[in-house]
Amino acid sequence: MENKLLVSYSPHIHAQSASVQRIMLDVILALMPAVLFSFYLFGIGAIIVTVVAVASAVLWEWLIAKYLLKRKPQIWDLSAALTGLLLAMNVPSNLPIWMVLIGTLVAIGVGKMSFGGLGQNIFNPALVGRVFLLISFPVAMTSWPVPLKSRMSYLDAVTGATPLGIVKDGVRNGEKISDLMHQIPSHMQMFYGVMGGSLGEMAALLLILGGIYLIIRKVISWHIPVSIIGTVFLFGGLLWLINPEKYPDPLFQILTGGVMLGAIFMATDYVTSPMTPKGKLIFGVSIGLLIVIIREWGAYPEGVSFAILIMNAFVPLIDKYTKPRVFGTMKTKKQN
Amino acid sequence: MAKEKNNRLEIFLKGFIKENPVFIMLLGLCPTLGTTTSALNGLGMGLATLFVLTMSNFVISLIAPYIPSKVRIPSYIVVIASFVTIVDLVMHAYAPELYKALGIFIPLIVVNCVILGRAEAFASKNNPWDSILDGLGVGLGFTMSLTILGAVREILGAGEIFGINLHIFKGDGILVFVLAPGAFLVLAYMIALGHKLKKRMYGE
Amino acid sequence: MATKVKSTLFSMTLTLLIVTAVAAGLLAIVYKYTKGPIKEADLKKEKMALQQVLPEFDNNPIAESDTIPSDIEGDSFKLVVFPAKKGDKLVGVAIKTFTMKGFSGRFDVMVGFLPDGTIYNSIVLSHQETPGLGDKIDPEKSDFSKQFAGKNPATFKLEVEQDGGDVDAITAATISSRAYCDALQRAYNAFKSLDLSKYEN
Question: What's the predicted TM-score (pTM) here?
Fold first, then answer.
């Protein structure tokens, strides 16, 4: 009965000569500048939410593996810790602790362990947790603390709308975007990361730096982030050219909300993204299109998490159609 | 036939776990997902189906010997549809709140595959007494499943059970559970649980 | 198989005829006995809504109801007006109004005015607003709709605070709050155009 060899589920064909633990550690390191910056912006709340999310994600993983699945817990591969960290990056810093606990339970329990653990899950666990929270607690999940204003308070932080929320609400109410611009931060401010939003929506600059680090370390390839951000920029720009009073400009589209975080850290998750470069491009472009479609015509002001989850479901299909030919074989004609 | 008579208890009991229509057979999932936003709605839908199932099983087992086999399905459907319409009218008249909550799902009991399935697989081949037992058993199993599903969703989603506030949440509950995704989520875990229970009670 | 009858054209026709005839007869009987209660159940909701939005009355406002036209953007719609009387005196007017601006489209609101134009109470009749957000327009879910009671739209601006009005919007559901105000404003405009003296005997 005793397993002599411990087989950890491994989808990590992507990275050569790397252990799961090293990959996860690299991603966590790459996120660190943005995490620390969010601590600076949001203060105590950000620290509480992040610590609780990471610790509880690891705890859930350990409990579920040990007592429900009766297998040896693999918490030292750091994947649960990363899931917790990414979830924390996706929520407002004044989210009550019990909601964070539910979020990590759903992320780890429903999003990951129900499918059989790391490598078996179809959807990005952190995003499963985030979307679950968003649908369940719409008020708490859309009251965004204003950065720098109330760093010493947690639950009673001063809240305001996100730039995307302001634009969406304004346009729905029949206002012109040029009249709304004075309510939202400038592009430079957004680039440095001072605006209302979730922890990880801040600081495009730091997230891009993290992304470059990951690409240099060969943890991720450039295909997915570049194709997502590029598509959002181009498609958003096209709409902006058609009607600049109804659709925001393309720079605004890529600097606000979760585009950077999603494109660099969430959509590139090994388990839930395609394997081939061509597949990655299809995946990225589709996510980019969906983001803009949901933002402009959907009910929610932001659509990054939905877009990534929807495309996660298509990954097996994309993989099937972009699977490279085995070297030496002929291109076969349609057989079935 | 003699063997079946000895197994009357089993005919009645199999609908609860062994051949539970929702958690094991995965039948009638449309009303299961659509109406179980609260324990009361689940119970109401379950009882409506229970009534239709038992009555149609009884009538169909009575008339089955006299129906030419080529027109048996249309005949069964007419019988089932009649009982559904009776439920629809009576509920509209005497339980308007429940009627409004269940909405389109009441007329849709007609196409619930549990009912035609039992008519075809059981009632048309067995005597009226056994058919009533079968209808009651499967119907109660269906009712039980829907009520449990509704109760879980109501407790998690609204912090209430049968409309009684349990004071677990300040303000709203975990809303996703009263919405459509929550139905799928809870159903999935219930199916897993149902199979585990079945394995434990009846073996593989 | 259990069936003893062969499928001939005659036997099949006869069977179906009998089955459908018996079913039709049975349903006719049930229909006859539930017709009355169904009608009552349908009216009950409107009646209960009227009792909630109007001061005490002793006439039958549904029997005396009337419609007035209300135009939005070229399309004309009708609002239903229910006069409530106690003895011969008009104590209030309820108007069944609606808005198209809800987060999920149209919803209907019943609003009661006192003769001087003050809102007595209002209640949403049917809606598809988002659970947990917009559905708080329902008085069972939050106190949002209760803030209008006792306010006269002549002095109380029926717009959310964000737009410069006096209405405290539902958190994170500004659109539903705006729509509710829109429905009330439509009813108030209709109320102002009413000739109240025609209801006094």
Answer: 0.82
